[in-house]
Design goal:
The complex is a heterodimer of chains A (322) and B (289).
Chain A: E1 2-11, E2 14-24, E3 29-33, H1 40-48, E4 55-63, E5 66-67, H2 73-82, E6 84-87, H3 101-112, H4 120-130, H5 136-141, H6 149-160, E7 167-171, H7 179-195, E8 199-204, H8 207-213, E9 216-221, E10 224-230, H9 231-236, H10 241-248, E11 304-306, E12 310-312
Parallel strand pairs in A: 3-8, 3-9, 6-7, 7-8
Antiparallel strand pairs in A: 1-2, 1-4, 4-5, 9-10, 10-12, 11-12
Helix pairs in contact in A: 3-4, 3-6, 4-6, 6-7
Chain B: H1 2-5, H2 22-43, H3 77-112, H4 115-130, H5 133-144, H6 148-175, H7 178-185, H8 190-227, H9 238-245, H10 254-281
Helix pairs in contact in B: 2-3, 2-10, 3-6, 3-8, 4-6, 5-6, 6-8, 8-9, 8-10, 9-10
Amino acid sequence: MLTIRDLKVTIAGHTVAEVEMLEVREGQRLGLVGESGSGKSMIVMSILGLQPKSASITGSITFNGQELIGLSDKKMANIRGSLIGLVPQDPTKSLNPTMRIGKQIAEAITLHSSIKKNKADQRVRELISNVRLPDPDRILRSYPHQLSGGQQQRVLIAMAIASNPMMLIADEPTTALDVTVQGEILQLILTLSRELGMGLIFVSHELGVVRFICDEIAVIYGGHVFEIGPAHAVVNTPLHRYTEALISANIAMPKTQADIGREAGKLQSIDGSVPALGTFPNGCRFRNRCVYEITECALPVPMQNADGSRFHRCRNPIREKG
Amino acid sequence: MVTRLKKSWSKPTRARLSNLPASLLIGGGLVGFLVCVALLSFVWTPYDPITIDVRNRYLPIWSDGHILGTDKFGRDVLTQLIMGARNSLFVSVVSTLVSLVIGTLLGLYVAAAGARLQNIISRGVDVGVAIPGILVAMVLATAIGPGNAAAITAIIIWFIPVSARVVIGPTMQVLSQDYIEAAFGYGRTKWFVLFNHVLPNISSIIIVQASVMFAAAILIEASLSFLGVGAQPPTASWGRTLKEAQPLMEIAPSLMVVPGLAIVIAVLGFNLLGDGLRTYYDPQQARKR
């Protein structure tokens, strides 16, 4: 359904994202995982044509056979919302504070479908119950500030699915929310994508969350896809050293082979931080922070296929035992 | 049942009178009173505003038949005051509304325009703000002759850049929000977004600005009439009544106090009204109702 090939996003001469190949089939859920500043948001924003104006894009993004790169603003606006829905990162900034919830959802409906304004009410109520919000009469009359963050995010999910899109993009949809409601929102997104048969691109920095939601995981670092494969395989038997480091840095993750021999119960962290734009090392972009660096890492690293469904980009991958 | 529930959210929550801010009630009362008085002048005034009555000159306050006394021509002061209210409100309402509409549109346009155009127009607006309004009125009075037309035009020229400048900053702030980007992303046009998403968000600022401008316009109208640039005789105006009372300060001080109080009440009323409206329309305050 969605195919990205040789996508390259550059800002002021620096490559911020480079994706050789990424695919979301109908009803499939793909997770993009990476640290802050890894370029995962840049990739999804490029799909929607919402990249910063200073960015230039080459390559190809096709959606249902239609090329999205170079599409006019008007045609792109038509695809956004009607075929691809977006659940934003911060619900509190994404609703107009002076408009009642009912009117905002109605606008999302009437804009991209043949439903007329007077018929929209019924659909609004349907959406409200779809996203499991109680007491629709009160919710629809409320202003955004009268709802909790979780309720606001549900409203935005309702707006995103208003015109039955084929694909939903969720850009860190729970980052701005309380931990207690994160689980509910995640469950809702998962259930909706199953019920409505929507494809899903789920962006997050939490590997544990992505494993719970998605069928497939792509690990992103420095704008490169480091590893891609079925979710359970990537988490249980990572191939790339960076994936492994991410897993050991996560408190909720099972221990990997690499942890054996380390101090028990101690959480690992990745030394250093993501380099600033334009200061990434040659070759493997993770090289300067990787404890398994070998000399070949300085050379460009191509994507390698490991047993059919799994790809990685590591000169010194973790070899599976047995 | 379905029809009853339909669009139920679009009806505003009804507010009880006791829950309204006090400033809104007092300001609204004062302004409402002024408007009623001005409208009353079209159908009835205690005396004819123009007729001169030489026998009854300089009657003091509380005289028989002339509650506020008479002026140097023997005209009833209360009548002059009522006619003055009509003139003051007419000039300030027309000039404020025209400049507010033009200024707001200009401000919205500038805020949404590109950086280069924004710089050029913003500097132009700064120049406009710097021009002294009274001077513009004087020049206009000599060019098109003194009168209400000159006063209104001068106030409009004065207020357009002021109201534009008030709108530009908040508009740019709202335009940087995520929901605005979403609206553009969905394919909404610039002016649709400006009117439907930006304007409601800056409405409280515009309302407060309007009240300040109403009050200022009343003061300016009075000043211009006082200087002889505004309303010309025999049109009654608070400023001109004040001016005519000035040389008679020692003979009949009440002639000066009465129109002065009228101006104070009008300015106070519009300021309180604006303050109250801002409190009322603020969505953050809605939960208290």
